[in-house]
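Duplicate of #3305? Posting structure anyway:
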């Protein structure tokens, strides 16, 4: 029967300070994602959260079965260091940290673990002679240092510290022991053979009788003697000064005579050591000196704490990771800021390459503070604030670089890793595309690969502190965390509203503002950026019907058209055709306009249709938003507020008299005739459509355009036409928005770019209401029928140009981008609710949802647990085969248990398998130690273990 088994103490998992800070970074990024609707940011946040969970499992696996023992050093001398050996058996992949107490100050060491035994040395400074009892506090960490598991403390270790031999001591005195002459008295010496005795530790190999060893196998030592008068006497009376100085001199004499092989005796007050010689006798003498009373007080001179030594290899690895992390910032920040950040990083790299091996000192604190203040002031001058997206991320990059410049120790290095991860998440304010996602994952992997070197300095390998194994472990860790991140990405509740209202300043704008003047839209036409995408239920309308309505400008002061607050009286809307349903994916604009087709009949929740027929949202579009809308042809405003109509007749006094006279000359015509007269004037007046019209004067601007330059863009024609209509007695206003779009055959949706920004005119006609009139189409019909790019070269074209090979490739890439937006970026609370409803879960907070969420999270952890359990097996193939045998039998091999003892224990429990187990032991020894082909020996070992499994029982009985 098996004897009682002492249960191992339970393992306690605790987060480290770095782990708590890591979690705070995750929570902070999660709050940012919730507030700003950064869908892709959720993915990175949950991925890092998965890393936090997986490292907890790794720490437990690394600590399971780990046993730490201490071995004494071969010798310890006061004023020097004692090299205490730290031995760990069992455990898994992680890091071991051990604090040794008992000396003048605690000494700590950290070593990486690779799933096998560890033997390391910890140098302990000793200041005083005498016995010194050491205690150790071991802890196991995961590779990143986020979690720690305290291990049982090993048995305390007592050292005997010898007094330090005096440097430059005079020769030992020539005094010998008193004797009666040759033959009268003899003592141990090296002159004459006196006999054989059993070997004692410390005997010189030259004294061993190797003839008797070869004959009998027993170690015997030849004993010699000499006349007693030849043995030297080391006496306390031959020294002077304080007791410790006298002991130091005696220690030097003992060392001198011991090396020379001269027999000696030692006489101290209260202790005498008889005559002897050899290493054992010298050690006994040093022990006598070390224990001489009174012993010095160990508390007399407590040493000051030693500052943590810099880790240049770890700093280089972290610098490389931070350089990759900050690379996108250099593309959008001011050039001077990018130069300062690069200079600080290069200076930090220069610090790690010192000829003496010691890193150069960091920049002084006063200089770093001056750079922070100056940089903040310069950024405030550029952006007008230090808050918001552009200014905030630029200032964060500067602060991160300044922290790099003053980093000194492990705490600073771990803080750099955390700041780098937080900076990575801020890139989603600018883009959530696939390239940004790939870059953030790469940056996170590099930062996680650099983190272990700060916890265990021995983990940093390679010239740049990042080697392939470190990167492989980081990628594996992210891969293990990916299933959990995916589950949380899909199921984590997505709030519909931000937690607080803080505008993301600097957000990319659509180009449409609350006021326009000549030149605004022509600037937009040179931008190829996407404004929004439109996906129709069915075939999209023709190009000439694609007028995407934005701001409506009704106030005119002679130079600028501005929006005004809408009338309190709602105009009439009379539908004249079927509804057209479509989905808009709006890029961030910072404006409230939803850019619906005329006239919107249904808008999303949180939006409304203004009295100027604009689809407006209460919350500006600061992130990419996906919206479902509905529009239909209609008569707009046949019943309109008379005050509004009168306001839209106003013209500033004294502005453009010639244009005013021209419009007034048409007042005798019917309303439709006045519109046609103005269009005919534009068609027949020799006007030109161009992106680079000449600058118009502030005074009489419309006259200069209509009668002098005759060259302009859409805003020139729309503004001039509205002026003419008001002069002719018709209410008119300018409408801004977009016209047309590029059909992507890869996805069947429209791409509306910034270059498609357009302005047209609305004229109020009796019995018709507000009628859209596009005077630009009278000059360049291709602008409406074929798009801007075609209109600039072929103004009368009726169809867009066939896209080139490069253009088709861009459309393919845009289709991928659009699909990415649908699946990832635009996954918000509304789409989550729809997904949960289709899955039969009701919604967030419903009982089915509450039951499914923990179940799914648990399932995502199973593959990681299985992989970590498999990786807990020993690295050595032979040891792994023996480990697998224990798994099959249900009897694991104990930490530190030899293979022979393990097999003997199994044989005692299952005698019927003793023969097969002995075959396993022989095959194990052959695989581990025998010369020859190891592959063949390993094959024999595996075959032997399989035979054990087939014998009767699959589990040894207890």
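Output from current build:
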């Amino acid at each position: 029967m098996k004897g009682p088994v002492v249960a191992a103490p339970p393992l306690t998992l605790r987060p480290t300070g770095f782990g708590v800070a890591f979690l705070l970074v995750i929570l902070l990024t999660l709050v940012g994602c919730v507030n700003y609707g950064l869908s892709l940011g959720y993915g990175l946040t949950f991925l890092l959260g998965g890393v936090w969970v997986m490292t907890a499992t790794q720490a437990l696996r690394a600590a399971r079965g780990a046993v730490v023992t201490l071995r004494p050093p071969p010798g310890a001398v006061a004023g020097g260091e004692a090299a205490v050996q730290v031995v760990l058996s069992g455990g898994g992949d992680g890091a071991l940290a051990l604090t040794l107490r008992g000396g003048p100050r605690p000494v700590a060491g950290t070593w990486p673990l690779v799933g096998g035994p560890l033997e390391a040395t910890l140098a302990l400074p000793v200041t005083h002679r005498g016995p010194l009892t050491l205690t150790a506090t071991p802890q196991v960490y995961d590779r990143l240092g986020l979690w720690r598991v305290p291990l049982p403390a090993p048995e305390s270790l007592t050292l005997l510290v010898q007094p330090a031999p005096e440097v430059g001591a005079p020769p030992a005195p020539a005094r010998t022991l008193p004797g009666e002459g040759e033959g009268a008295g003899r003592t141990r010496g090296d002159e004459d053979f006196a006999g054989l005795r059993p070997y004692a530790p410390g005997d010189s190999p030259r004294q061993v009788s190797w003839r008797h060893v070869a004959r009998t196998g027993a170690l015997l030592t030849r004993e010699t003697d000499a006349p007693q008068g030849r043995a030297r006497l080391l006496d306390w009376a031959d020294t002077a000064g304080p007791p410790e100085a006298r002991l130091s001199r005696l220690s030097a004499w003992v060392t001198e005579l011991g090396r020379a092989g001269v027999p000696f005796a030692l006489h101290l007050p209260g202790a005498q050591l008889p005559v002897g010689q050899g290493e054992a006798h010298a050690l006994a003498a040093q022990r006598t000196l070390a224990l001489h009373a009174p012993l010095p007080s160990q508390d007399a001179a407590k040493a000051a704490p030693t500052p943590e030594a810099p880790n240049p290899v770890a700093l280089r690895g972290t610098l490389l990771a931070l350089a990759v992390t900050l690379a996108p910032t250099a593309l959008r920040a001011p050039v001077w800021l990018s130069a300062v950040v690069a200079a600080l990083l290069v200076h930090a790299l220069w610090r790690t390459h010192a000829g003496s091996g010691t890193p150069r000192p960091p920049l002084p604190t006063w200089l770093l503070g001056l750079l922070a203040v100056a940089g903040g002031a310069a950024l405030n001058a550029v952006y007008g604030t230090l808050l918001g997206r552009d200014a905030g991320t630029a200032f964060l990059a500067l602060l991160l670089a300044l922290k790099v410049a003053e980093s000194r120790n492990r705490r600073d290095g771990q803080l750099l890793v955390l700041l780098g991860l937080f900076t990575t998440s801020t890139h989603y304010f600018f883009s959530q595309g696939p390239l940004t996602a790939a870059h953030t994952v790469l940056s996170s992997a590099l930062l996680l690969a650099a983190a272990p070197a700060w916890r265990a300095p021995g983990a940093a390998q390679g010239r740049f502190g990042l080697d392939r194994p470190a990167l492989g472990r980081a990628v594996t860790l992210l891969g293990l965390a990916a299933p959990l991140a995916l589950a949380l990405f899909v199921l984590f509740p997505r709030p519909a509203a931000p937690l607080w209202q803080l505008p993301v300043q600097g957000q990319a704008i659509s180009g449409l503002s609350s006021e326009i003047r000549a030149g605004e839209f022509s600037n937009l036409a040179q931008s190829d950026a996407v404004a929004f995408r439109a996906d129709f239920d069915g075939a999209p309308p023709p190009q000439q019907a694609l007028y995407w309505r934005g701001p409506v400008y009704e106030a005119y002061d002679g130079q600028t058209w501005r929006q005004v607050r809408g009338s309190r009286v709602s105009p009439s809307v009379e539908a004249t055709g079927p509804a057209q349903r479509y989905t808009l994916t709006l890029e961030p604009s910072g404006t409230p306009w939803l850019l619906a087709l005329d006239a919107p009949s249904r808008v999303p929740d949180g939006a409304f249709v203004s009295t100027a027929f604009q689809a407006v949202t209460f919350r500006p579009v600061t992130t990419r938003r996906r919206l479902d809308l509905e529009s239909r042809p209609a008569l707009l405003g046949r019943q309109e507020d008379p005050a509004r109509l009168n306001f839209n007749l106003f013209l500033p006094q004294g502005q453009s008299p010639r244009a005013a006279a021209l419009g007034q000359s048409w007042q005798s015509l019917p309303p439709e005739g006045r519109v046609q007269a103005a269009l005919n004037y534009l068609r027949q007046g020799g006007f030109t459509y161009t992106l680079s019209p000449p600058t118009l004067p502030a005074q009489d601007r419309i006259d200069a355009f209509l009668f002098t330059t005759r060259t302009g863009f859409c805003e020139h024609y729309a503004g001039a036409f509205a002026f003419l209509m008001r002069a002719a007695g018709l209410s008119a206003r300018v409408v801004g928005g977009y016209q047309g779009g590029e059909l992507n055959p890869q996805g069947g949706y429209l791409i509306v770019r910034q270059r498609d920004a357009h302005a047209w005119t609305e004229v109020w006609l009796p019995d018709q209401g507000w009628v859209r009139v596009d005077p630009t189409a009278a000059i360049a019909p291709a602008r409406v029928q074929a798009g801007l790019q075609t209109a600039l070269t072929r103004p009368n074209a009726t169809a867009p140009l066939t896209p080139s090979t490069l253009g088709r490739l861009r459309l393919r890439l845009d289709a991928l981008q659009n699909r990415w937006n649908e699946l990832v970026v635009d996954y918000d609370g509304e789409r989550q609710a729809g997904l949960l409803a289709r899955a039969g879960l009701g919604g967030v907070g419903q009982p089915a949802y509450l039951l499914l969420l923990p179940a799914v999270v648990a399932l995502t952890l199973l593959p990681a647990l299985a992989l970590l359990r498999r990786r807990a097996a020993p690295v050595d193939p032979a040891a792994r085969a023996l480990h697998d045998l224990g798994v099959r039998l249900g009897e694991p091999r104990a930490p530190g248990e030899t293979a022979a003892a393990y097999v003997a224990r199994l044989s005692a429990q299952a005698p019927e398998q003793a023969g097969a187990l002995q075959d396993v032991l022989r095959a194990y020894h052959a695989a581990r130690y025998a010369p020859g082909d190891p592959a063949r020996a390993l094959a024999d070992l595996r075959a032997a273990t399989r035979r054990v499994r087939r014998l009767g029982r699959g589990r040894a009985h207890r």
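Confirmed duplicate; merging threads. The longest helix spans residues 39-63. The radius of gyration is 43 Å.
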